[in-house]
Give the backbone structure.
Amino acid sequence: MDTRTGLPVVGMVGGGQLARMTHQAAISLGQSLRVLAESPDDSAALVIGDVRIGSHTDLAALREFAKDCDAVTFDHEHVPTEHIAALEGEGVRIYPGSAALLFAQDKGRMRARLAELGAPVPRWRPVNDTADIAAFAAETGWPVIAKATRGGYDGKGVWVLSSPDEAQRLVDTGTPLIVEEKVPLRRELAALVARSPFGQVAAYPVVETVQRDGICVEVLAPAPGLSDERAVAAQQLAIDLAHALGVVGLLAVELFETDTGIVVNELAMRPHNSGHWSIEGARTSQFEQHLRAVLDYPMGSTALTAPAVVMANVLGGASGGMSIDERLHHLFAADPGARVHFYGKQVRPGRKIGHVTVLGDDMTEVRARAARAARWLQEGK
Ligand code: ADP
């Protein structure tokens, strides 16, 4: 507890945009958010009062960071599992716990556990060499999808392999891998739920996530044209997984929709890009929900605030042209309803530097406005 306010101190490991937006929610709840950032220039470190600089792989730094926190949580998955287990052993309330987070850290462990739980997953296999990959491809056909078991994000760590030669080149890099069938997906969906230590869960409306080059570019809430039956099944799947894995905090279940149903692609146990729309588009944002969950407060309403909500990511564009600030002036003049979130990050081509959310009655119109706003901020045209 922060003795100045009588309200909780939450520690978040990682100083990215997720911590930055969690801070916004913490402010409203009167909480003090502390972050462990790599650098004072990290997105969240620029705005938070209580910033500790240190590495998330340094157990001593984590231990010092966790002192006097009511709960510790993460803005990424990269804290070594054994460090989390060590802190748990010392009585730190750290969420999600090591036993759950493991399944968001390692794609091989995640696939194996999901299969064990009977969740629908693509055909997959752990592989050590090109012969293993070729044997798998003999069953499913080329191409196959290879994935680094650890450390991937935004499509980095995912490869489409079309031949044994390509497989060999990847194997030669020494990256630990799994392979999967290339799922004939119609589109991608995400089911976001939060779970508290008490065991209460809250499920957000299922959304469609639109990807380009392995990066999420748009999120449509609710997923257009998704049958009630399939939406409820996806929410129930996410709730069941949250309970079965013992997740505390948010769980984002990334899904592929095929002609016959849904399969699980990935799990994330933290605020997630597929939930940014909830800042304006839901009664309780995912960031507030995550704070409530890790502190064992009752969950907030996940109801939509408008019939159609679209979030579009703003990626860094080519340098030159109108400044970002000037672009913002023009955007605000052109679309006073567009809600802009910048993360305070240096612009690099393809890097997520912010997002825009638009709310309205008609999904087609809302989507066009969000895409136009994001493109304008990105490219200045
Ligand atoms: P990351 O952890 O980098 O986000 P993902 O496992 O989510 O990686 O994969 C990134 C994207 O690659 C997915 O959003 C999807 O578009 C595509 N993809 C991943 N796995 C498959 C698969 N088995 N079949 C078809 N497409 C896939």
The longest helix spans residues 228-245. Residues 122, 145, 147, 152-158, 180, 182-183, 185, 188, 211, 214, 254, 265-266 surround adenosine-5'-diphosphate (CB under 6 Å). DSSP finds twelve helices and 17 strands in the chain.
